[in-house]
Structures are given as C-alpha cells and as structure tokens.
Amino acid sequence: MAGSILTNAVTHAILQRKWSPEQVTGRLRMDYPGDQQWHVSHETIYRFIYAHPAGERRRALIAALCQGHARRTPRTRGKDRRGPLRNIRSIRERPVEARDREIPGHFQLRLDQGPLFNV
Fold first, then answer.
1. Where is this region: Disordered (predicted)?
2. Is 109 a domain residue?
3. Can you tell me the distance from the alpha carbon of 77 to that of 118, in angstroms, rounded to the nearest whole number?
4. How does DSSP classify residue 114?
5. How many domains does the chain have?
6. What range does the domain containing 45 cover?
7. Cα–Cα separations (whole angstroms), residue 44 to 55, 95, 99
8. Does 59 fall in a domain?
9. 108: pLDDT confidence band, cut at 50, 70 and 90?
10. How far apart are CA 112 and CA 86, in angstroms?
11. Is the pTM value of this prediction over 0.70?
12. How far is residue 43 CA from its own chain's centroid?
C-alpha cells in the first residue's frame, strides 16, 4: 500500500474501530469513490498486516482481526479428489438403437418433470 496517509487510515480503522479488512475496503470506496489511490482490496490489506516485521504493532494488528491467527493461509481450491473416470465409452460408440431411441430405456429422462417431482 502506497502512501503513509492510507497506511495510517487503514491501521487506525483496524486497531481503533475493530474493522475487518473487508469493512475497511468498503468504507474507503464509499469515502473516496473517484480516487483510485484509495481503492485497495482486502487482500492487499491482509498482505500489509502480515508483511509487518515481528513486533508490537504487528501483534496488535493481527489480534484485532476476527480470526487473530499469527500466520495467514491463503485460500486455495484444493486438489480434485474424485479420481479419474474408468471404463467410460464415448457417446459416439453407443449402439445405433440407442441413437434412434427405438428400444425402451434408450430415451432421455427429465427427472425434474413428472408426477413424482410435484409431490
């Protein structure tokens, strides 16, 4: 975050008013709608807090946060745990009867329609 005025405003809002970084971001956008210099994301504020060197100010800023964790773990999507699909056939490999839907069971079924759905 550039500028000591912005830094002081954010620090004051977090420490004195007990605002979250999301609240600080929203308030800055309301107070300075046309000034892009004051538009910072909550992620930028979190980085600002956790980038402080160890000391009393850092401890105070972290303690003022809702969670108050000494370390921040960024949210990730995680890895896909479903695993690969096995023994699947391409739709192009289906029998001719299924393509023409001549045999019962080879038709499309809409599960969100019909008498059971309206129960």
1. 69-99
2. no
3. 36
4. S
5. 1
6. 4-64
7. 20, 57, 55
8. yes
9. low
10. 28
11. no
12. 11
Which has the closest alpha carbon to 58: 11, 19, 20? Answer: 11
Alpha-carbon distance of 83 to 81, in angstroms, equals 6
Q: Are 24 and 32 in contact (CB under 8 A)?
A: no
Return left, alpha or beta for 3; rule: phi > 0 is left, psi -120 to 50 is alpha, else beta.
left
pLDDT tier, 105 (very low <50, low <70, confident <90, very high otherwise): low
Q: Are 58 and 51 in contact (CB under 8 A)?
A: no
71 occurs within a structural domain: no
Sign of the Cα torsion 12, 16, 22, 23 reads negative
Angle, to 10 degrees, between the axis of helix 56-64 and the axis of helix 4-15?
Answer: 60
**114 in any annotated domain:** no
Residue entry with tokens 């096995």: 86
pLDDT beyond 70 at 117: no
Flag whether pLDDT at 29 surpasses 80. yes
